Input
Amino acid sequence: MDRRTLLAVTGWLATTAAATLVGLAAVDLVGADITGTAGGVRTEQDVARALAVPEPGPSGADASPAATPTGAASGTPASTGARRGFVTAGGSVLAECGPDGVRVVTWSPAPGYRTKDAEPGPDDHVEVRFVGAVQEYELRLRCRDAVPVRDSND
Output
């Protein structure tokens, strides 16, 4: 191998290594904004606790239909009963009890799952089914002492 070829190969390798390092640094710098979750990964217990605490809704002129979460039961009046979150590997559900029974406030399938069926209520029993490539999860809920609970038939 002559000296000119050796210099060309060495220069190419150095340029490739520098470009790779710059690319990795850029991904590390903005990677959390692109692929990560804000605040890190949450456990099922963290999600259940977060779902159990109602978030303040939009008020005044800022209220718009776009503010309604995906999978929300719309067209039903707000209930005064307790809210409770339920989490499975297939997805999560937020439900509340009211004078007309249990109502699903919102639901969200986990990554890799989709909502197959949802009966948001209000009714004596409500259910949401999440289906993935291999497994299916069904949450059947009812009210007990004005608090949403899993149906004992599950």
